[in-house]
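Hey L., structure's done. Input below.
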Amino acid sequence: MQEMPQAVDLHQRNLSRRSNLGLTTKMSIQAMAEEISNQMQDVPRFASHLRETRVPEPHPSKFVFAGSGDSYAAALFAQELSRGRAAASDPYELMRSIKTTKRKNLVIVSVSGKTRANIDLARRAKRFARKRVAITSNPDSPLARQCDEVLPLEYRSAGVTTAGTISFTCSLMACAFLFRQLPKTLNVRAILGESAHWAKSQTLVGTGSFLFIGSGVNYALSNYGAAKVREVLGAKAEAEYPEQLGHARLFTIDKKRDCIICISSGQDKARRLYELLNKGGFRTSLLADPNANIVQTSLKVAIYLQQLALAVARKRGMKTCAFLSDRRKLELSSKMIY
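Output:
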């Protein structure tokens, strides 16, 4: 696969700019807004390039996806997009059952291409996997060098350490491409306008934790939404399947402080939960899109979740993403990941 210009994800920038942390943190929310805006041109452009690229032949059941952080949410998206025919896994856990990659196409999603577990997974899978494919913004990374093929992510970076936004939506497009499910057109301009308006209207957001509810690809996106809340706002956030909420999880929710976001694709259980929770006096919001194209809808939901985190951060007067505010934790994070 053809190599594209390199982009840089937040962890890669953490390492390269740690000495200048005091300067970069002042603009991280602004940089996030810039990269969200860049999606208007860059995501359709990247999708257009993918449409011109040779489409792989294997059946979805021949794919195993792995990733960490946002990339784990992208791997879950691929699994759900295939309706469970492909598998998604944590890279370290997959190493513990490496033989499950035998004669499969192992796709490792890693924006930086420097995560230790991903590199080790690619190395160990060499004996078993039919092919190892890296989805990464860095085609010269250690991960890319360990893999048989590279599917480079193509987008503009703000050049400042910030939360992952456009890197995630491009990862979604890359996963959809592998399953030949890229939509013919992507109207990101309209999505950006609508999502910004929706995010600003979310007055129910409290001062407690966040819970994202969704099934299918919406569960994968719920994981992404929870990651953005933790990363940008520094608040506790979780993702859950609709069926699991009514069990023990419901009894941990604070009606006055916590916020529940139900992500629905129509008359599904997430919508029914929203109606029940709303009547029960919980702080609940519905993010619904009945669009028949699952990839277009997923892109839309991802951008709405980005705008939500950004809008709340601005409302709280934040200039810096929460994950950048504690130097010691940031350094510990890098030690754990790299």
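The longest helix spans residues 28-51. The chain has two domains: 10-184, 191-315.

-- N.
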